[in-house]
Amino acid sequence: MPASSPRLRRTHPPLATSPVAGPRAPSAPARTAGTAIPGGTAAPSGGTAGDAGPAGRSRPTRPPEPESRRRRYVPGPADREVLWLYLLTRAGIWTTAYCTRWLFPDDPATHHAADFLETWQRWDWGHFLHIAREGYFPGQAGPWMNGWDNREAFFPGFPLLLRAVHTVVPHWATAGLLISFVSGAVAVLALARIARLHLPDERAGRRAVLFLLLSPCAIFLAAGYTEALFLALALPAWLAAQRQNWPAAAALAAPATAVRVSGLFLAAALAVHFVVTVRTRRQWRALPWLALPALPPLVYSGYLRMHTGDWMAWKHAEERGWYRDFHAPWEAWLNTWHAAFAESLPTGYALMSQAELLAMVVGLLLAGVLVRRRRWPEAVYVGLSLWALGTSYWYTSIPRATLLWWPLWVLLAGWSLRAPRVKTVYLCLAAPLMTVFALTFLSGRWAG
User: Which 3 state secondary structure label does DSSP give 42?
Assistant: First the structure.
């Protein structure tokens, strides 16, 4: 998700800093004879690298590249531990999917289990499939027709990638699962590295990933949905921003805005992070890069304008299909509360409304902690997400949105490292909820 900062002339080694941990110790003194150089060989005895050669002339040598930079893109032992954890949780979810098709068939009297891939083709997957296979407006169809499915509410990033992968993997559902599987691996690696930047404990990355992968809505990281792909772009973009590599951060955030509208919240957080971290005039030259993430939504809006005459057709499709027209935050809360506890909906939908309320409370607490700690960029990202999700007729998909709040998993990891019981409490509560959400989704009921 090479630094662009200017190289200032110094007479002593610069202090390496972390976004949270603060300055580290200065670099070690120059090594003497026989001391191994990181990433290289030991200097020969009787001299150090760069001593005079046989002719008495100085023999300059290139200083070894810092170990962190050389290994930045190569999985190390900590990364392999994270990937092993990722594979174990994928095996657990696939096992749950296998059992679900036997325990919860569409016809209770059947003697034949449903196809394994059929259990994954639920709800939003149908929209992604139709867009990838037919486009947004097949045969002059569109929102001017009765019974229109409002597919333009979904951004084109995932359907376009699905169509591309389908050229290699003929089965559509398999292609969608493959995208999420690979994207999830990239996402957990980036999350682990972000956690290790913020927390000094070497267990921080693995702990943050564990909390994410066992969160209640983790099933959506495995399904053919947009969450895993978005995180695979957004988290490396944030990691690049932490390293002051603004071109890379913008280049990764741009496709994220093509996947979900949440990409615009990421772009806003990157802009805030840029403003609060840059110091020199040369660093400010990277500012135009921050406009790049706005390009994909602008192109998509232009495409919709050509076909519907409406620049905001995607937003109006959300309003028609999912009641996402604007309401005051307290109205949205009261409407969701009524759906959850007034027995106005079937029990399955009422339970999910209760989950929406709980997720909103978690989001508000998270935003409050981020503001208190003056982590303004992350607070902007979470705050914009809460505003977008909390100002519709009622709450929809907030539990799924928690997957995208990476500051939540980093903060929980830090908390659990200070208070070990936090991990036990979290796993004892989150793991059963994850199973319930997985069974609900895989059996075709509404989840999250």
Answer: strand
Of 16-30, 32-46, 138-152, the range with the highest mean pLDDT is 138-152
Q: Is the pTM of this model over 0.85?
A: no
Helix (H) or strand (E) holding 18: strand 17-18
| Encoded tokens for 108 | 């209770």
Provide φ and ψ at 61, rounded to 5°: -125, 150
Mean pLDDT over each residue of the chain, to the nearest integer: 86
Q: Cα(280)–Cα(291) distance, rounded to whole angstroms?
A: 20
Q: Residue 110's pLDDT is what?
A: 86
Residues ≥6 apart with Cβ < 8 Å to 244: 3, 4, 5, 277, 283
Per-residue DSSP letter, 27: P
pLDDT in tens, 87-106: 999 999 999 999 999 999 88
The residue with tokens 């303004």 is 376
- The CA distance from 274 to 290, in Å, is 9
Dist CA 58 CA 115 (whole Å): 72
Which of these, 333, 329, 423, lies nearest to 383 by C-alpha position? Answer: 329
Please check whether residue 243 is in contact with residue 354, taking contact to mean a CB–CB distance below 8 angstroms: no
Contact indicator for 423, 329 with CB cutoff of 8 Å: no
